[in-house]
Every structure is written in C-alpha cells, then in structure tokens.
Amino acid sequence: LSQLAGRLQIMPPHELFRSALDDDDALLDLREAFEQELRHCFGRRACRELIGHWDLPNRATFCDELLDTLPPEPPPQQKSVDLGLLSDRLHAALDPRQPNPPAQVRLCQRLQGIDCARLIPPEFPIGLDFPTWSLLKQYDKEWLLPGADTLEKDSITALQTNPAFIDAYMVGINTQFMAEMRWRDLAVDRYSTPLRMFWGQVNYATQQRQADIQPLGEWARAPADPVGALTHQSIQPDDPGNATGSRLIITFRSDLFRRYPSTLVYLVRPPAGADDAAVDALLQQTPQLEHAAGDRANRRFFGPTFSGTLAPDLTFFAFDVTPSALDQYWLVLDEPPAELRFRSDAAANAANSATFARTTLDQPTRIAISGAELERQGLNP
Prior knowledge:
This protein is of the alpha+beta class.
C-alpha cells in the first residue's frame, strides 16, 4: 500500500492511511485507486510471475478469479460540452482580425526581412461592365431626358449630351457603391472606380464596351478642371474643336423602330460649298461607315456610336459629332435590307422580261432630313 500511495502521488503513506481510517469517503477513494492499480498490475505483468513462489491449488485460474471478485471498472466520467463557449473561444483564437492573430504570428516567424507590423488586409480593385444609364431609364427617365413624355408623336428631336451631369452622376454612384461594398466587409480597393461606364458604347475594333470616364483618382492630376472636363473622359471626341466633349443625340418619338428595328440611321456631311446636285448625288450613294484611322478626318458618312430606347416608341442615336455643327450634316434613314420586290408607280416597259423587271423593281426607301432644318425647328418649336 505504501508503494501504491507513492505511485498514485496522492499523499504520504501515513497520512493516506490515517485519512482512510477517519473518513469513509477517503477509504472509498483509496479502495477504488487500489483496485484500478491492481488491474493495471495484472494487465502489465503475467500473473504467474507474481504468484510464482506461492503454493496455490488453483494456480491456473487464480488470477482470473481474483479479478472477477473486483467490482467492474467504473466508466469514465463524461461531461457535456458547452458548444456556445467552445465556439466563442475558437473564434477568439482563430479570428484573423484580432490583434496578432495566430496565422499572422506563425507566418511572420517564417518570413525573413518583412515588417509584419506594416501589413494590411489585401484589397482588390474591381471593374464592372455595366452601362449605368440603364438605371436612370429604369427608375426615372426624367433625369436622363427631361420632358421625355411631352415629346410629340412622330417627331424627331436633336439633343446633346451633358458631360457635367455624367461626371456628377458617376461620382455619386461610385461613392454609394463603394460604401455598400465596405459595409458588407468585402475586400475591395477603396481607391478604385468600379463603375466607369455611363453609355457603355462598343468599340467595334475590339468588340468590347468602353468606359466613359477616367478613374476618379486620375482626376486629381488636373484639380483645376471643372466637372465635365475633357480630362475626365476616356473617349475623346474626333472633332478637335469640340471643347466640351458633348455628343449629338437624335431622338425619335415614333413606332418606326418598333416595327422596323433594323432601319439604318446615319449622318452625311457634304463638302463645304457643295451645290444641290452634289448633295443629292452624295445622299444617293451607298454609305461607307467603316474608315481607317487616318481617313476619319475626311469621311462623309457617320454612323451612330451607340443607341438605346427609353420607351417602346422613344429611340435615340448618339453620334460623335459636335452638336453646334448640326447644320453641316444631313440625317438619313434607310429602309432595312430585304428581298427584291417589284412595284412601281411609273408605267412599266413591257418590251421584254428584263426591261419589265428593271422598270418595276421597287427601290429601297431612303429619307434625308437637313440638319439645318432640325436645328431651326429646335430653336423655334
């Protein structure tokens, strides 16, 4: 028992025995400890080695019978786990946002030559391919085109874009978007400009939409430039005389494009001083809307840079043209290409089938409207 008490490291042997004689609970604890140690003893050493010098009639079964007289080993004590407390402690230990998180400490111990005190959480710049004018169309068209509902039926109106409004709108929507990203605790670079497209016009050379404004951080390079300045615009006008960067917008209030959505709309610029015959000849030509970079200054045909609809009967087309020079252009609408049709109000020549077909061939319809007339109607409604 003295050796057993020493192995259990409970208390000195004489104190253990005195406590066991004076206290029933202590005696019970001593008995349980002795029984457990006895089991361990028989489990570690062969029983016949322990009783080798004893004269026992039942030597073969003595060890098993002795163990059978002992009460069964009590099951290990089990205690329910407080999952809430465990979760809180694990979160506190693993949360990377706390001061000196374990992952950062372990990483800094491995990295050499890096001051971990200067490390900050990673932030990633983002950019969205999203034309934001569609939000104005969806929620309030009056901000995009004041008086849109008052335009007369079957009318054509010449307008111009407002770069100052576009700048202010893009600053506001980016500010709110970034605030939402930060509130949601997303790792977004706070200095990025995720929304840079207002119109989102397509560059047909790359087949991708282009941003309308420079990143907001670039605006600081020219702090004296006003809102709407050319330095804020990513797409510069072709006309070097266009100091504001405003574009020409032609708006149609008509069911024409709902019924014939493939109607071709473009501008024609006759040479300066051309007579009526030269203008008519130019308007009758097949439009050449593709030009090499070096030929753009001398082009006569101008296709729209983008188009859109504000309502089923309200369609607009934008042109990279200085709005104040509208009187130098003609607006042309071409009937959509279709199969050959034979119809003519003139008398048909029935000399032979070829002549009859040529004289009755229905030519596609083309309408040309003077830009000077559109400007006059706009100034004198």
